[in-house]
Amino acid sequence: MTEPATRPRGRPRKEVQTDDVEQPVGFENRLGRLTIKSDSMAEWPNLLLLFSHLVVIRCRFDEQTKFFHYVAYSPLFEIVEQGDMAPEYAMHTDGQNIAAVKV
C-alpha cells in the first residue's frame, strides 16, 4: 500500500520588520500590527470602517485563540524606522471615526 503524500507546511514564520515588505506609496513607513477576535467579524460596518484605513500585508488566523493577527500600513499608525519591529495597535471606533492606540 502506498503512503499518502505529505505536503510541506510552508515557510517558518518570522516577525515582520519594515524592510521585509514593499510599502504603499504615501504611507511613509507607517507599519503596525493589530489583532481582531473572530467573533468581531459579525460587526462588519465597523470592520469596513477599520479596513478602509488599512493596507493589509499579512494576515494569520490562530485556531486556538480564534484571533486574526494582521500586519498593515495605515495613515493612523506612527512612522516606524527602517528595520524596526512594527508596534502593536488597538483600534477604536464609534461607528463614525476611528483611532489607533499603541499598545
Structure description:
The protein has one helix spanning 44-51; strands spanning 31-37, 55-62, 67-73, 89-93, 98-102. It is mainly beta and 103 residues long. It contains 1 helix and 5 strands, in the order βαββββ. Helices cover 8% and strands 31% of the residues. Strand 4 and strand 5 form a beta hairpin. A 3-stranded antiparallel sheet has the order 1-3-2, with no helix packed on it. The model is unreliable at 1-8 (pLDDT under 50). The protein starts with 30 loop residues before the first strand and ends with a strand.
Low-confidence stretches: 1-8
Helix content: under 10%
Rg (C-alpha, Å): 16 Å
Average pLDDT level: 81
Biggest pleated sheet: 3 strands, antiparallel
| Broad shape | globular
Distance between the termini: 54 Å
What is the topology, as strand order, of the major beta sheet? Answer: 1-3-2
Class from secondary-structure proportions: mainly beta
Strand content: 25-35%
Query: What is the N-to-C order of secondary-structure elements (H for helix, E for strand)?
Result: EHEEEE
